[in-house]
Structure formats: C-alpha cells, structure tokens
Amino acid sequence: MSHTTPPRKTTPSALRWLGGAVAVLLCLVVFGFYTVPEFMVMLADQMWACF
C-alpha cells in the first residue's frame, strides 16, 4: 500500500496577495495619469502621430 501526499498549492496565498496588491497599485498609477491634462494631450498627440 502506498501513501500519497496531497498536491501542494503552487502559489502561496501571501504571494497571491502581493501580486494582487501590485496589480491594484499599478492600475491606480495608470488611472492617476489620466487626471493630468498634459499627459492626456501628449497621449493624444502620440496616438494621432501613428496615423
């Protein structure tokens, strides 16, 4: 009779929380740029330059 061990979690919960926190922080930084009018004008100019 062989004893098998249950499969281990591939991602520890602390690492998942850290990844989620980094993703939320990155989204907040990106969305924060949209409140800066100069950034929006620069972004629009760069998009227009593609065409």
Question: What would the keywords be for this entry?
Answer:
mainly alpha; 51 residues; 2 helices; 0% strand
Write the SSE topology.
Blueprint: H1 13-33, H2 37-49
Q: Sum up the overall morphology in one term.
A: elongated
Q: Helix and strand string, N-terminal first?
A: HH
The share of residues in helices is 55-70%
Count of helical stretches: 2
Assign the structural class, choosing from mainly alpha, mainly beta, alpha/beta, alpha+beta, or little secondary structure: mainly alpha
| Mean pLDDT figure | 86
Query: What is the rounded distance between the termini?
Result: 69 Å
Strand content: under 5%
CA-based gyration radius: 22 Å
Low-confidence sequence ranges: none
Most strands sheet: none
Number of strands: 0
Explain the overall architecture.
The chain crosses the membrane at residues 14-36. Keywords: Membrane, Transmembrane, Transmembrane helix. With 51 residues, the chain is mainly alpha-helical. It has helices at 13-33, 37-49.
Structure, briefly:
This protein has 51 residues and is mainly α.
